[in-house]
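Question (not urgent): is this output format expected?
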Amino acid sequence: MGKTFAEKILALKSGKESVITGEIITVSPDIVMSHDNTAAIAKKFKQIGINKVKHPEKIVIPLDHCVPAATEKYATNHKEIR
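Got this back:
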C-alpha cells in the first residue's frame, strides 16, 4: 500500500526513507500556524518567564476572528499579535 501525504512529508523532514503510523520521529517545522487567541496565550507564557519564541520568522497567525476589530480589546489583541 502507498504512503499518505503526511507520511511522505514526515519521512522527508525526518531524514528517513519511510515512516509508519505510530512511529515516533523528530522533525522541525518549516512554518507554524496559530490562531488569533495568541495574545492571551502569549500572556500565559510571559507569566512563566518565556518572553520570546525561538523562530519568530516561522510563525504565521491569521487574524480571522472579529476582523476588523469590533472593540478596543480586540484591537489591542491584534496589535500585540502583530
